[in-house]
Automatic annotation (TrEMBL):
SMART domains (alphabetical): CBS
Family matches, as InterPro entries: CBS_dom, CBS_dom_sf, Diverse_CBS-Domain
CBS domain: residues covered: 7-64, 71-127
Record key words, sorted: CBS domain
Protein name as catalogued: CBS domain-containing protein
Pfam family, one: CBS
Species lineage: Bacteria, Bacillati, Chloroflexota, Chloroflexia, Chloroflexales
Length: 130
């Protein structure tokens, strides 16, 4: 099974110049914990975790904070053709809740989350028991 089989294609994204408050609103509206941060061409430049956003907000109570001030810039990514088991190991070993999926030009094409991995495992287990 490959990442492309389980990823969410066309993920919700945000740009680095967006306000942190806006990012939090987007996360709450879409029930997300991670937002890929992209430049205007769709290239991945970072990832924003809800946990990091909330931590930053508790320390810096001003509303003018931008996504670029909070996002992680060194992002581990996978390709659509990456085996799902390899993505799961990356996530487990690095304590990531998600991995952006990019093409060769670093353009975001999807995101794979812990929930996607759990669903894949549950589906495999159900098939084995059937």
């Amino acid at each position: 099974m490959l990442v492309r089989d389980r990823m969410s294609a066309h993920p919700v994204t945000i740009e680095p110049e967006s306000s942190a408050l806006s990012a939090l609103g987007i996360m709450q509206y879409h029930h997300l914990r991670h937002l890929p941060v992209v430049d205007p061409t769709g290239r991945l430049v970072g990832i924003l975790a809800e946990r990091d956003l909330l931590l930053a907000a508790s320390r810096h109570l001003h509303a003018g904070m931008e996504v670029s001030e909070v996002m992680s810039r060194d992002v581990v990514v996978v390709r659509p053709e990456t085996p799902l088991a390899e993505a799961a190991l990356l996530m487990a070993n690095h304590h990531f809740g998600s991995l952006p999926v990019t093409d060769a030009e670093q353009t975001i094409v999807g995101i794979v989350t812990e929930s996607d991995i759990f669903r894949a495992f549950a589906d495999l287990d159900a098939r084995v028991k059937a």
